[in-house]
Amino acid sequence: GEETLYYPYCDCEDRSILFSKLVRNILGLDVVLVDYPDHIAAAVLFHSEIGGDSLMYEGQRYTICDPTYIGAPAGMAMADYRGVEFKVLAL
After folding, report:
1. What is the DSSP letter of 27?
2. Is the CB of residue 62 less than 8 Å from the CB of residue 43?
3. What residues have CB less than 8 Å from 37, skipping those under 6 apart?
4. Of 23 and 3, which is predicted with more confidence?
5. pTM of the predicted protein model
6. Quick one: which of 1, 26, 62, 68 has the most CB atoms within 10 Å?
7. How far is CA 1 from CA 22, 43, 45, 70, 80, in A?
8. Who contacts 38 (Cβ-Cβ below 8 Å, separation ≥6)?
9. What's the pLDDT tens digit per position in 40-70?
């Protein structure tokens, strides 16, 4: 966790895991990781409807929240990964 903030370099996996921990611990929301062929993002189970890119996991709609897509709002996946096959990794 803290090491991600200390070192000058962190990758998408580091950022997505840190983001997921913060969302769970501070907001109490469920989060899963979205494992694309060469990228990892996160998806959050919000209590209200959030527009944008999402996925279904265990009957619930999770909204894509990619902490490496700087400036993107919740619900915006990187264009290169829209429609790409992925795996959901439960934390």
Report:
1. I
2. yes
3. 84, 85
4. 23
5. 0.87
6. 62
7. 10, 19, 22, 20, 28
8. none
9. 999 999 999 999 999 999 999 999 999 999 9
